[in-house]
Amino acid sequence: MASENLKQDQAAQAKLWSFIYGFAESLVLKSVIQLDIPDIIHNHGKPMTLSNLASRIPSPNGAADHDRLFRIMRYLVHMNLFTKESIDGEDHYGLAPPAKYLVKGWEKSMVPSILCITDKEFMSPWYHLKEGLGNESTTAFEKALGMNIWDYMSKNPKKNNIFNEAMACDTRLLMSALVSECKDMFQGIKSLVDVGGGTGTAVRHIAKAYPHINCSVYDLPHVAADSPTYPEVTRIEGDMFKFIPKADAILMKCILHDWADDECIKILKKCKEALPSNGGKVILVEVVLNALSEHPYTKIRMVSDLDMMLNCGGKERTEGEWKNLIYAAGFSRYNIRQLDFTQYVIEVYP
């Protein structure tokens, strides 16, 4: 009995220690990307020895220290992100399957998201989680950085660029699923405006897949100023709380989760005003939260809910909560589609 209790104690304490040091994995991941290790191994075309890898890592003082690099690589192997195999008596390090998403410059690279989420300033609201539980409207982001997230982005171009790159990264991963799995959703649509569409990554995917649709992206002036131009996409500057351009379909990808219920209803009402009098629809790409689900993305969706609470006072919502918002804004029905991704598609009809 004593032995069984000891095992239970060890398991419980080990679980807590894994949570305590949970930050280590994300920050090691960030450092590995900054050191270009995934790209160095990928470009080499095969696993590399520690000495060869060390000689390729950029360093102001020459090659990276072998012992320190070995200890980092040992941990990455333990994380199952890198492989280690002995060839001719010497260890060689390669990329495990998940590490392909750490290679920069291809459509499914997750590097921008990792660099954004692990950014020192963007992590700081998590240190104010306790203070963020108060009844006042001030968010943890405001407590940490002195202003709300939207003002901060407009006044800090470098951080705004990091943020926009992360959003574009997430969009690239999402849009391949959306375009391939929801082809029927775009039938009969002649015009579409992507509200809060950032750099235009999402709507550009739609414009290329469905060239018959007249596509526009609508966002704040400081977002447009830092965004590329695309010949197949019209860019419109404005404030979605005041006006939304008219279109057959209005796309909003991960927009409403930034806002509290009252603001969401206001935005949805503006969407309804922008739709044709005889039809049209709003296409929401959002998390539909189910804490009891065993889906691999359930934990990520729940973390995202805390992220929204801390950074902008928003939330991820259950189907029941989405239903309440949609009907409160004057819409008559909705349809939910599950994608092979973190978010769902909610089609909303007048």
What does this structure look like?
The protein is α/β, with parallel strands linked by helices and 350 residues long. 46% of the residues lie in helices and 15% in strands. It contains 15 helices and ten strands. It has a seven-stranded mixed beta sheet, with helices on both faces. Helix 11 links the parallel strand 4 (191-195) and strand 5. The radius of gyration is 23 Å and the shape is globular.
Keywords, separated by commas or semicolons:
350 residues, alpha/beta, three-stranded antiparallel β-sheet, 10 strands, O-methyltransferase
Number of strands: 10
Shape: globular
Sheet of most strands: 7 strands, mixed
Nearest-integer average pLDDT: 89
Radius of gyration equals 23 Å
Give the class from helix and strand content and strand pairing.
alpha/beta
Task: Compute the separation of the termini in Å.
Answer: 64 Å
User: Approximately how much beta-strand content do the residues carry?
Assistant: 15-25%
Give the helix level as a range of percent: 40-55%
Question: Helix count, per DSSP?
Answer: 15
Order of helices and strands: HHHEHHEEHHHHHEHEHEEHEHHEE
Largest sheet, spatial ordering of strands: 6-5-4-7-8-10-9
| Uncertain segments | none
